[in-house]
Each structure stands twice: as structure tokens, then as C-alpha cells.
Amino acid sequence: MFLTELDERARVKGSRDPLGVVPLWSRFGRNVVGNLTTVTDNVRSFTTTLLGYYFADQIMERSRDNGETELEIFLKFEEMAGYTRYAINDDRAIRGYRRVATRTSGRKPLMISVRSEDQILSNMKVYGLWGLYTRTSRSSGLLDPNAPRPSAEGIDLLEKDTLPRMTPALRAQLVSRLSRPQFRFDLHGRDHDLAKGLANMLGPTLSPGERGVYREHLAWGGAEDPTRGLQKQLATLIGELDAPEFDFEQFEQVRRGAEKRGCDDLARRLGQIEVVEHLIVPATSAFSFLQTQNNQAVADVARKIESNWRKSGLRIVEPDSVRVLRRDFVEALRDEGLTDRWFGISDSLRDGAWEKLIHQLIELNAAVMQNRNQSAPWVELSSGRLRVRQPDEAGELSRGSELRHTWRSTYFINALNKIVRELD
């Protein structure tokens, strides 16, 4: 998934993916996290998604000829939820945070509608909860697989644990408002009670019932968990960590924990992730560095890489460990040629063949750009010198001593970590 205009907090670094690493790490990440994405990492955003579908379904069932679609009703609910989560619950984990913060600062009534100027994101359908949380909610068993409404489990959760936090009278008022094409929402005036009721449903405290359902469906992957229980094992191990963030140190703790507990398949899959990450990290670091070397001779750039990496000893890439994953690479990249290019890069990283590595990275980028949309490569060679065409994601070369412990890709584990932390 490539993200463009989002809150900075949600933007994926390297989202333009010049070396095509996203399909690669995604393939290995899906072996251990089957339902979450890099951005579906907030429990109350799942609650908001379920409620949006719930109220949209109710309104559509009552009046199929009201001229609106489920999507339009959903977007209006997401706007109301975003304003109340921020203004009343001080919840910053909302999509559209910047617009919400700006609009609520004046304490004036807020216009709710699907017009672009009223939306809390540049394109809520794509970058809001409908576009980003629907698929995960469905694959987790919280949304009906065949209709735009919560599943039986999702409805049961809402009706037992979420909706009772808002009085029936206020819920009826909410439905009445959402049935209109547009309306003003006065958070601090006449709609304060309505806003408080909505904020109660989306508050920071999860009930025991909510924790149980969300743990089973989000943290453990639900009944259709494609990892066949590995995600539950991983979530359990993550829950035992005493660290708010998930980095390579935590990854290694989890991998060792899987080995000690006899979770052999999980340990094997995590070992594969470690191998892939130890290839991706130096490759992407080197290519980012190339983007800072416009008009520099290849030989000079190679000497700079050697000075940095050989000084501390680059010994993290083992081509034999990479090559045993050939089938996975081909399935991820859907291209034998790209797979061979990555294996060549692994050889050069091990051997310290830095000039060869530079050529290989430039050729890989050209092939990825050509396959994606026939775009021009980001870096080219001309008379033995680098010609940088796209410097947007340029960066300094990582120190060799840092490469072994750098966690660049997420393999969806970071999202799982955040979900697990919320459910603790």
C-alpha cells in the first residue's frame, strides 16, 4: 500500500519504495501477522469503524430512498467521531488529526457533510477508516464478509459493550442527524450531550468484554487466522515485553522467546524475517546514500561505502540463508529476474564488492520503476558518474555497526504491538 497525503504520523517513510521492498517484507510479515496493516494499529479506530457501519446499516434499512449511500453516512459518522475523540477524549490517534485540531480550536459549530471542504482528510474514502480499516475489520471477522455491516460477532460486541454507553435517546438523536445530508455539530453548545455520549462509546477505557473480543479478533487474528495460530503465539510473546515501542531489540527478544518455548514454526518464520531485514536494511541505506552523490564517480562512492562499512565490519548478510528463501522471494516479487538481482546484492554485501553493489542497486531500481509504471529510474550512470534524478528519499549512509540492529521494515509486527499494548 502506497500512501500519499496523510498526517505525518501516518506517512510511511520510503512509501515510494524505489527498490520494491514493500512486497518483499509484506510477504514474510504475513506469515506471522495475517490481518493487520501498517496503519491499522488503534483499537478505538476499529470501534469507530464498526459503529460507522452499524449506524449506516440502520439508516439504510429504514429508508432506502433517502438518496445517500452507506459510504456517505459512514463518512459523516467518522467526522463526528473524530471531533469528539479529539475534543472530549483528548485522543490524538485519529485520522485527520491536523484538520480536527484546527477546526475544534475555535469552539465553533462544525459542519458535518461529505463535501470535500468538510471532510477531515483530503480524501476520507481512501485515507480514512473506510479505506484503511474496512478490509482488516472484515478479515478479522468483525465485519460481514458479504455486506456493508458488522458481522454477528461485531453486532454482539456493539450491542453488549459499546452502545449501552450512550442512552437510547441520544442514539436516536445521532441516527436522526446522520440521516441528513449535512448539519452543524455544536460540540460545546446544544450538542454537548450528544458529543459526550459519542465520546463515552469511544473512550479510552475498554470493558472486559471489549478486551476479550478485540484480543481474539485483532491481536489473535480471528477465526479465519491465516497464520494458523502463529499470530496468537506472537501476540502473547509481545504482551510479555516491557517496552512501549517495538524495535529490533524487542524483535530478538520475541524470537528467542519463541525458541525457548518450543514455538518452532514461529521461531522459524521470525528467523526468516531477520534474514530478509538484514538484506533490506543495508541495501536501502546504500541506495539512499547514492541519492546524495550526484555527479560523483562510482569508484569514489564505493570508497566512501567501504570506509564506512568495512571499518566496522559488515558481516550480517549470509547469501546462503537468503537463497533458501528463493520460492518466497519469487512469490513476493512475482519476478525471477528481480529475485536474482536481490541475490546478487546479497553476494556483493557479503563480499564487500561495493562498485558492483552500486551497479546492482541502480539496475534494480530501474527494473522496479519499469515494472511498476514505466517510470524513469531514480539514479543513472553516465560516463562512470552518478546522475541523481530523484533525490526525495536521500539519506546518509548508516554506520556499519548499526546495520545489524536496525528495524526498518515493520512486517506488520509494529501494528500488532500497538494493538496488544492497548489490550493489556
Explain this structure.
The chain has 424 residues and is mainly α. Strand 3 and strand 4 (385-388) form a beta hairpin. It is elongated and about 75 Å long. The chain has a two-stranded antiparallel ribbon. It has a two-stranded antiparallel sheet with strand order 3-4. The two termini are 29 Å apart. The chain has helices spanning 22-29, 43-62, 70-87, 97-104, 124-127, 129-139, 152-162, 168-178, 192-201, 208-219, 230-239, 248-260, 264-290, 298-312, 319-323, 326-333, 336-351, 354-373, 400-403, 413-423; strands at residues 110-112, 183-185, 379-382, 385-388. 57% of the residues lie in helices and 3% in strands.
Strands, total number: 4
Task: State the helicity in percent bands.
Answer: 55-70%
Low-confidence runs: 1-14
What class do helices, strands and sheet pairing give? Answer: mainly alpha
Fraction of residues in β-strands:
under 5%
Task: List the total number of helices.
Answer: 20
Strand arrangement, major sheet:
1-2
Euclidean distance between termini CA atoms: 29 Å
What's the average pLDDT? 92
Compute the CA-based radius of gyration: 24 Å
Shape: elongated
- How are helices and strands ordered from N to C? HHHHEHHHHEHHHHHHHHHHEEHH
Sheet with the most strands, sense and barrel status: 2 strands, antiparallel
What is the strand and helix layout of this fold?
Layout: H1 22-29, H2 43-62, H3 70-87, H4 97-104, E1 110-112, H5 124-127, H6 129-139, H7 152-162, H8 168-178, E2 183-185, H9 192-201, H10 208-219, H11 230-239, H12 248-260, H13 264-290, H14 298-312, H15 319-323, H16 326-333, H17 336-351, H18 354-373, E3 379-382, E4 385-388, H19 400-403, H20 413-423
Antiparallel strand pairs: 1-2, 3-4
Helix pairs in contact: 1-13, 1-16, 2-3, 2-6, 2-7, 3-4, 3-9, 10-20, 11-12, 11-20, 12-13, 17-18
